[in-house]
Amino acid sequence: MKIIWFKYFLFSLEAINQTKTEMKRRKFIKNTSVIGAAMGLPINLKLNKLNVAVIGSGLRGQSHIGLLLQRNDCNVVAVAEPNDKMLEMTRTLFGKREQTQPKYYSNGNKDYLEMLEKEDLDLVIISTPWKWHTEMAVACLKKNIYTGLEVSGAFSLEECWDLVEAQENSKTHLYFLENVCFRKDVMAILNMVRNDLFGELIHLECGYQHDLRGVKFNDGKSAYGSGVEFGNNGFSESSWRTEHSLHRNGDLYPTHGIGPVAQYININRGNRFLYINSVASKARGLHNYIVEHEKGGPDHPNASLDFKLGDKVTSFIKCNNGETVVLHHDTNLPRPYSLGFRVQGTKGLWMDVNKSIHIEGMSKAHRWESQEEYLKQYDHPLWNRYEQDAEGAGHGGMDFFLINSLIEHTKRKQIPCFDVYDAATWMAITALSEKSIATGSSPQAFPDFTRGHWVTRKNDFALGNEY
Amino acid sequence: MKIIWFKYFLFSLEAINQTKTEMKRRKFIKNTSVIGAAMGLPINLKLNKLNVAVIGSGLRGQSHIGLLLQRNDCNVVAVAEPNDKMLEMTRTLFGKREQTQPKYYSNGNKDYLEMLEKEDLDLVIISTPWKWHTEMAVACLKKNIYTGLEVSGAFSLEECWDLVEAQENSKTHLYFLENVCFRKDVMAILNMVRNDLFGELIHLECGYQHDLRGVKFNDGKSAYGSGVEFGNNGFSESSWRTEHSLHRNGDLYPTHGIGPVAQYININRGNRFLYINSVASKARGLHNYIVEHEKGGPDHPNASLDFKLGDKVTSFIKCNNGETVVLHHDTNLPRPYSLGFRVQGTKGLWMDVNKSIHIEGMSKAHRWESQEEYLKQYDHPLWNRYEQDAEGAGHGGMDFFLINSLIEHTKRKQIPCFDVYDAATWMAITALSEKSIATGSSPQAFPDFTRGHWVTRKNDFALGNEY
Fold first, then answer.
1. Residues in A touching B329 (Cβ below 8 Å)
2. How many angstroms away from the CA of A324 is the closest CA of chain B?
3. Which chain A residues are closer than 8 Å to B310 by Cβ?
4. What is the pLDDT of residue A8?
5. E strand map for B94-210
6. How many beta carbons lie within 10 A of that of residue A447, not counting itself?
7. Minimal C-alpha gap between B259 and chain A (Å)
8. Contact at 8 Å (CB) between A369 and A357?
């Protein structure tokens, strides 16, 4: 290792900027670190500046790019995006920030493969429609490029296994980009859980409860609530997300809820999900929205569609260590946004819907307290350190922490805090819930994607204030 | 009918007070009304003053007696109660109110049968430990005495059918005493549901979330939290309720949640429960309570018991009309009291945990509003009329409405708003949830206790401001 360090040091001193030489350096570091890993040696190599590509620069991809461009430790060197309007918006973003334009790969949905072939990349971020996620991640892992994959639910368990196998045959890692794990209150509660405020955890709730009617439909030109079109006639998410509500019935979007819960109870790290049951209500919300919208009406062609997604899908999960988890999915009805968290243990509980906490011996018996003082006192060290830097970043600042974590993990070639086994497990909820609903709410066992390693794996998410 | 009315009128005029004559009158009315019913004629006979007996004058029975003694339309003529301490408290209650003591039947658990044999009763209220409920109600129905049965969960579906068959072979009715249907906010929400504020209902939640550790254990002398004893060493509820937590694993107490929900979505009246799935968390709370209590400790004999009831039992129900219902049962952990109501439709939702409402077009998009103004505006006519009378009655006044409804229904010999089919259906949740948990959360179909009549039955609960 000393020799490697020495050579690396020399390269650093020379401050080489020429692309060709830089590419050689990068290939050298990659190879040596692979050798180090193969030899079971600690890898102390840390890349200082990453070459990053983004597949899918829609609104979500542009948000990621915006955060990447604020950093001095990465260059966004390539973007794969087939949609003209999104390409134009992406170009404008680089222009506004006075940054060198990346190489664009815009020749259809598969041009990203050309990009992976031609570019020398340390990291690819995938923020495309759900149906592309696995195929794209598998392609990146095959090229041994560290992969940041946006969240979604799986179509099948086979798809989850594809991800796991691609990872296990790769020399790099898959980071599953679940931003809510970094939400300020969610991290403060994690801190409280780890400080045993709630005692032994018993029951958890979470979900995705978000009135998406104005996201699932628009006028094809602007994003939110501007009409009742979707698919080929829609813009942004309505062009691809809505078809899932038309054809599928299950918990289509489980990760924002289950990601944080998985941290609280160490899923895939000493604990695992055993089985899930799901039930779906009738579907009324999307049809009603089309009929009642000023640009819709009972005679609009979309008013005759039979949306299969139940307006409210409810699931529960039994865990190996005896905890139960309730998941809500509720995206077709008028309602305030809520991930519906509940963290309950032998000493007390937190609920986010009433922003309240009860801790035995601290709270008055049988009474709620405001969460406010607790969240302040147990503010997570990461937020304590980086809150100002996160200001203005997407989703209340949590996207800053997510991208920072992704970049720092990539630089160190580290196993991510949310890795391929988490991705497979969390994504599997969608496929399993569809199967449960299709079979009258029968229980569906989770595969053990870790092949038994969950027993000894450790939870190292956000243990300190580093990243 | 005219003749019957005329005779009844004559009796009324005579204002007969002598017991013997009164007994004859009562038997005559009973018989004539039975004849009327058999002839398919409307029964306009209304008893003016009821002879009431109470089986089980523990703390709950005493609360009922207290309310009965405030009324001028009933005499509490008999009480069956085998426990000396409870008998003494009951005598004191009558004494304090300067009321004639009832006849006491205290010769063991079966002495109530003697009471049913000897007394001339219009109404019996059963407020005994759960395991006696069905057998006692069946005995009362066999005697054709209008029966008010306290709520509980069933041990088996057969028990529920026993109740139904006893009712169907009887000339009178069973009123299932679910008081939460009369809770002020619950009734205001019913009023909102009926005024279509929430649109078509889609999803509901409810439950029983009440830290009962101090109820399940005491010192055998006083009721709440005074020790870690139960069963033969316990006082009041701990003497019988706790054994259920020791041996059983299911939703042991579903009716306070499901009763109101059943009103909102017309269960057994145009709608019905199809199936239920349940899951139970590990059980820690009761053991920990014993170990940590100053009168307990790790060496206390009860610390070695293996309580089977999961600390958190969660169920969901699918309804015939497409609604889903989530039920919570959570009685072994430190927490604030909450029945966890959620009423969600195509136009908006109410949740009681954050006391908030969102109604599309009235509330700001994606924002909660306080429930306060809505509950005021839609205050139920019954509360509007009787709120002052209810003041001081148990459980925030709702017990006043319950007893008033029971008495008025009995006087009119009416089919109760919560009848034997509701009792059977709601109680069945316990047996079905135990079976679901015992079989790895498999779905359990509800029997149709109405034998098809749910299709045409109408919901007439609290349609006006009468009772």
1. none
2. 5
3. 324
4. 35
5. 103-105, 123-126, 146-150, 174-177, 201-209
6. 16
7. 20
8. yes
Residue A35 lies in domain = 2-39
Q: Nearest C-alpha of chain B: how many angstroms from A312?
A: 7
From the list A202, A326, A366, the residue facing B282 with the nearest CB is: A202
The model carries a pTM of 0.91
- Read off the tokens for A405: 């974590």
pLDDT of residue B371 exceeding 50, the answer is: yes
Asked if B441 and A346 come within 8 Å (Cβ–Cβ), the reply is no
B286 assigned to some structural domain: yes
Chain B nearest CA to A2, separation (Å): 51
pLDDT of residue A46: 84
Cβ contact, residue pair B211, A366, below 8 Å? yes
How high is the pLDDT of residue A224? 87
Question: What's the distance, CA A296 to chain centroid?
Answer: 33
What is residue B1's predicted lDDT score, i.e. its pLDDT? 32
The span from the CA of B364 to the CA of A15, in Å, is 56
Residue A275 CB contacts under 8 Å (≥ 6 apart), including other chains: A317, A318, A443, A444, A445, A446, B440, B441
- The secondary structure of A369-406 as a DSSP string is EESHHHHHHT--HHHHHHHHHHTT-TGGGHHHHHHHHH
B142-179: pLDDT as tens digits: 999 999 999 999 999 999 999 999 999 999 999 999 99
Span B427-461, pLDDT tens digits:
999 999 999 999 999 999 999 999 999 999 999 99
What contacts A312, CB < 8 A, 6 or more positions away?
A: A280, A281, A328, A329, A330, A333, B202, B203, B324, B344
Task: Give the list of residues 6+ apart from residue A456 with CB closer than 8 angstroms, or none.
Answer: none
State the amino acid at position A74 in one-letter form: C
The number of C-beta contacts closer than 8 angstroms across A and B is 151
Asked if A324 lies within 8 A of B316 by C-beta distance, the reply is no
Tell me the per-residue pLDDT of B204-262, one tens digit each, with 9 for 90 and over. Answer: 999 999 999 999 999 999 988 899 999 999 999 999 999 999 999 999 999 999 999 99
- What's the gap between Cα B187 and its chain centre? 16
Does residue A85 sit within a domain? no
CB contact under 8 A, A314 and B365: no
Predicted pLDDT at B9: 34
Residue ranges for chain A with pLDDT beneath 50: 1-22, 25, 28, 31-43
ipTM of the prediction: 0.91
C-alpha span between B358 and B350 (Å, rounded): 7
Nearest C-alpha in B relative to A330:
B203
Q: Of B351, B265, B347, B358, which Cα lies nearest the Cα of A285?
A: B347
Residue A333, domain CATH: 3.30.360.10
Helix (H) or strand (E) holding A126: strand A123-126
Domain for residue A232, yes or no? yes
Question: Chain A residue closest to B338 (CA)?
Answer: A366
In the DSSP assignment, the letter for residue A446 is P
Q: Residue A348 and residue B333: Cα distance in Å, rounded?
A: 7
Please tell me the distance in Å from A340's CA to the nearest CA on chain B. 11
CB-based burial of residue B246 (10 Å sphere; 0-12 exposed, 13-18 middle, 19+ buried)? middle
In this prediction, residue A24 carries a pLDDT of 52
Q: Which of A239, A228, A240, A242 has its CA nearest to residue A298? A: A228
Residue B134, SS3 per DSSP: helix
Total structural domains in chain B?
A: 2
The predicted pLDDT at position B26 comes to 53
A278, containing H or E segment:
strand A273-280
A27 domain-assigned: yes
CB contact under 8 A, B202 and A336: no
